[in-house]
Amino acid sequence: MLQDVLQKTVAGAAATGTTLKVLGQAGVIRPHRPVALARVVKVLRDWGTGPAGGFTAAALLDPRRTALVDELGSLTFDEVHRRSNALARAFADLGVSEGDSVALMCRNHRGFVDASIATAKLGADILYLNTAFAGPQLVEVLEREQPVLVVHDEEFTGLLAKAHVGTSVLAWTDADGDATGSDPTLESLIADQSDDDLDPAGRHGRIVILTSGTTGTPKGAPRSEAGIDAAVSLLSRMPLRYGWRTHIAAPLFHTWGFAHLALSMLLGSTVVLHRRFEPENCLRITQDERCDSLVVIPVMLQRMMALPEETLRRYDLSRVKVVASSGSALPGDLATDWMDHFGENLYNIYGSTEVAYASIATPRDLREAPSAAGKPPYATIVKILDPDGRELPPGESGRIFVGNGLLFEGYTGGGHKEVVDGLMSTGDVGRFDEDGRLHVEGRDDEMIVSGGENVFPKEVEDCLMRHDAVVEVAAVGVDDADFGKRLRAFVVVSRSTPEDELKDWVKENLARYKVPREIVFLDELPRNATGKVLKRDLDAD
Questions:
Q1: Hey, is 96 helix, strand or coil?
Q2: Model confidence over 353-398: pLDDT tens digits?
């Protein structure tokens, strides 16, 4: 039986009753021919549970199932497997070997998937580059990480030229599918190689995902294969099911987007991709591709909900059972606003590149406490600690520490997150409420002391977001002659709104010392590609 196979063979899986129950409910545990199961067991032993083994196993079990849909069409699991075999041979000819690093700077399309699996099949590490990198950031990251090959979309050629990249390959071309320069394309490399199965590499490659870089140069956060526990952790509080069609709108290079690409290997999901996010187009794709789930970052929800009401009514998302959001906090009443329009399907995940998933808020959580980060999933410990490392009781605020099997291994450039008794700091401050839900109050380095009181920008940001004219808001600490520190708020509004009106709104809802000293009106907030506001780019002088 598959239960016995999972208990004995899947890498590091904790074969507990909870694990089997969660996988059974998700449809992962289901009847298969013994011969097929035996081949899958061997694949996972030889190749591991990362992209190499996961997609190979999926191709063995469901070769004709559609694995991927993008702007070029669709690919089955067998086609993805064979394309990556050919591409791995081509990468080897270009000098990639076990232990090397291959960098990817690609938007959401098949080339990202092809290159990821091919690199993993060679036992090399995969470095995911943010598609919104500025030139200096890109140069610094590539000089630090030293990849032997860079796979990129043609639009990033100019940026990469400044980084003195050696060997590079084009993943997506903009002119009728043909490269305009001398670099080969993924498609040409695949066409020139055999797609026969490969011998397993001597090591399993790592995935290196970069931190958001909101406070400085992005750091590389490597993570080895998480095994099946990573999936069980998410599935324990988010009801994804086998065989669903999933539109991953979140960037694949981001922890959250990649997590759902990895889940597709286990769940046999059809992943629907589109290179660029546009609010109405996201709704259209989700509807027209008959998607059962949608993967987003919060700013995508904001942009969709900012569409005119008649536009929102045009799309039927009744088939969608899970909208999985992560990457930053849900501002104001965004959660309830979304569910009022599209049903009780929103799940918000709190975590970080370093600790992976810390807590998951279900639709019920978000109805009862829209700003809550939810409860820890299976096999995850979250504690609130004081400055001396002592655990605080519910209701008291302190630093958030997380323990699970998914913690990263330390930054590639050196350094690590603070660890206390095996629990890793997220860098945030928060508290548990009486119902056991985690509330994230802000970054521990963003807190200011105003008039002797602790003030977190997030509370003021959430308050301003509930004003009907405010579309976006970010707040930062500035000096104040009377209070020592006060907040300066930067807002984007939908109509002309006096500054005093917004200040009075905060004064009516929060303590007087939390009212921003001034409010600056902007056309848009500076954000990175994962939707996080770049507060360092805001003028706080």
A1: coil
A2: 788 889 999 999 999 998 899 999 998 999 999 999 999 999 999 9
Per DSSP, 304 falls in state: H
Do 154 and 295 belong together in one domain? no
* CB 441 within 8 Å of CB 461: no
Question: For the segment 225-243, what is each residue's pLDDT rounded down to a tens digit?
Answer: 666 778 888 999 999 999 9
Alpha-carbon dihedral sign for residues 281, 282, 284, 285: positive
**DSSP assignment of 21-80:** HHHHHTT-S----HHHHHHHHHHHHHH-SSHHHHHHHHHHH-TTSEEEEETTEEEEHHHH
CB distance 357 to 406 below 8 Å: yes
User: What number is the average pLDDT over the span 26-38?
Assistant: 81
**DSSP letter (8 states) at residue 108:** S
Q: How many CA atoms lie within 13 A of 444 on its CB side?
A: 17
User: Distance between CA atoms of 504 and 212, rounded to whole angstroms?
Assistant: 34
| DSSP state at residue 346 | E
**Same domain membership, residue 470 and residue 438:** no
Q: List pLDDT tens digits, range 419-468.
A: 899 899 998 999 999 999 999 988 887 877 786 777 888 889 889 999 99
H or E element that contains 207: strand 207-210
Q: Of 493, 502, 501, 498, whose CA–CA distance to 525 is shortest? A: 493
Q: 471 vs 537, which has greater pLDDT?
A: 471
Any idea what the Cα angle at residue 139 is, between residues 136 and 141, rounded to 5°? 105
Mean pLDDT of 45-53: 91
Q: Are strands 322-326 and 101-105 parallel, antiparallel or unpaired?
A: unpaired
Number of domains in the chain: 3
Whole-angstrom Cα distance, residue 378 to residue 368?
22
pLDDT confidence of 414, banded at 50, 70, 90?
low
Both 266 and 384 in a single domain?
A: yes
Inside any domain, residue 22: no
CA angle 216, 119, 23 (to 5 degrees): 90
- Find the domain containing 148 and state its range: 32-205
Structure tokens at 97: 């070997």
pLDDT confidence band for 81 (50 / 70 / 90) = very high
**Crossing angle, helix 51-61 and helix 34-47, to 10 degrees?**
170
Strand locations in 346-455 (E): 346-352, 356-361, 381-385, 398-403, 419-420, 423-432, 438-443, 448-450, 453-455
Report the distance separating Cα 386 and Cα 392, nearest Å: 6
Phi, psi dihedral angles at 244 (to 5 degrees): -70, 160
**Which residue is associated with the tokens 């993993």?**
120
